[in-house]
Design a protein that fits this description.
There is one protein chain. The protein is of the alpha/beta class. The protein has two domains: 193 residues, Thiolase/Chalcone synthase (Peroxisomal Thiolase, Chain A, domain 1); 153 residues, Peroxisomal Thiolase, Chain A, domain 1 (3-Layer(aba) Sandwich), CATH 3.40.47.10. Helix content is 33%, strand content 22%. The chain is built from twelve helices and 13 strands. It has a five-stranded mixed beta sheet with strand order 1-7-6-4-5, sandwiched between helices. Helix 4 links the parallel strand 4 and strand 5. The relative contact order is 0.19.
Length: 353
């Protein structure tokens, strides 16, 4: 028995925000953003549109693609680091919003950029255990609430543009290394048990190393604090993520290739046997660096970061869906998913289409 993806779908906001829109808010240029990240545009959610809402859109599309009804789904896995509420997670929010029966269990997981990858392994494990036959897996994130909206950001989604104060402009510039990278988006897949020959998940290798959490984390709004959030934290911008870009880059271009080699060794295949390598879309230079480290040609390493930016748990399912839609994924192909994110969590999984 294998775990097989039988349908996929995406949910992306309507608001397309090109690099030029950000140059009005901070000291940057379109070229600066594009050459350092590969990003040309990203999507921003509407006010009130959270990761649960985008995840629901993606989930409905995946169910339709798989030709499955909600009653046929045994469990839901929702991967996000930006849930609609601090608690509960997005699982019950999506259950109620989409009208799933009350008997369905939902799992909320938080592995940030590796969330969808971990979710795939969890879905496969639950199917292999015999507990469930059919699961819905969603990866979705909405990063725009991290942005300082009171400092002119409304203009990015059609709001009135105004002259920023020197202080606002300076603050926006101080966090430009992060804000230019992220977008909002969701992807979903239906994963089912199948006896269809060699098709399905083959192996996964997942890893965690918490010894350098400060390389990518949110320093404020945590339950080590009393209170967990206060005015002073907000004024110090501590709810905004902190990232050591060089350290994250170094870890990404070494850890992901290592995990790909490890999962290929475990499955008894060569890296050169991979037909498509699905790399988490954090930065185009990282994507290209991972492909180069594995000596895979560029046509085997697809990317769409130029259109979406980093959507964290949404990147892998959005990329997978677009490759299916565009005919880049064909029956019998060996697909490898790999990601690295805050934690650090990273790994790789092999899948035969």
């Amino acid at each position: 028995m294998k775990s097989v993806i039988t349908g996929s779908g995406i949910g992306v906001p309507k608001n397309v925000v090109r690099n030029e829109a950000l140059t009005r808010l901070m000291d940057t240029t379109e070229e600066w953003i594009r050459t350092r990240s590969g990003i040309e545009e990203r999507r921003y959610a509407d006010p009130g549109q959270g990761s649960a809402e985008l995840g629901s859109i993606a989930a409905e599309a995946a169910l339709a693609d798989a030709r499955r009804s909600k009653k046929e789904i045994d469990a839901v896995i929702f991967a996000t680091m930006t849930p609609n509420f601090y608690f509960p997670g997005n699982g019950p929010v999506l259950q109620a919003k989409m009208g799933f029966p009350e008997t369905i269990p939902t799992f909320d997981i938080r592995q940030q950029c590796s969330g969808f990858l971990y979710g795939l392994d969890l879905a496969d494990s639950l199917i292999q255990s015999g507990k469930y036959r059919r699961l819905l897996l969603i990866g979705a994130d909405v990063h725009t609430p991290f942005m300082p909206w009171e400092m002119g950001w409304e203009s990015t989604i059609g709001g009135t543009a105004r002259e920023l104060t020197p202080e606002e402009y300076a603050f926006n510039t101080s966090i430009r290394d992060r804000t230019v990278l992220f977008g909002d988006g969701a992807g979903a897949v239906v994963v089912e048990s199948s006896e269809d020959g060699d098709r399905g998940f083959i192996a996964a290798k997942l890893f965690t190393d918490g010894s350098n959490i400060e390389a990518l984390y949110v320093p404020g709004v945590g339950f080590r604090r009393r209170p967990y959030v206060d005015k002073e934290q907000v004024e110090r911008a501590e709810p905004i993520p902190v990232m050591e870009g060089r350290e994250v880059f170094k870890q990404a271009v070494s850890r992901m290739p290592e995990s790909v080699r490890a999962v290929c060794a475990a499955a008894g295949v060569n890296v050169t046997d991979i037909d498509l390598l699905m790399v988490h879309q954090a930065n185009l230079r990282i994507v290209e660096g991972v492909g180069k480290a594995l000596a895979l040609p560029s046509e085997k390493v697809p990317h769409n970061i130029e259109r979406y930016g980093n959507t964290t748990a949404g990147t892998l399912p959005i990329l997978y869906h677009e490759c299916v839609r565009d005919g880049r994924i064909k029956p019998g192909m060996l697909i490898c998913f790999t990601a690295l994110g805050s934690g650090l969590h990273w790994g790789a999984a092999l899948y035969r289409t």
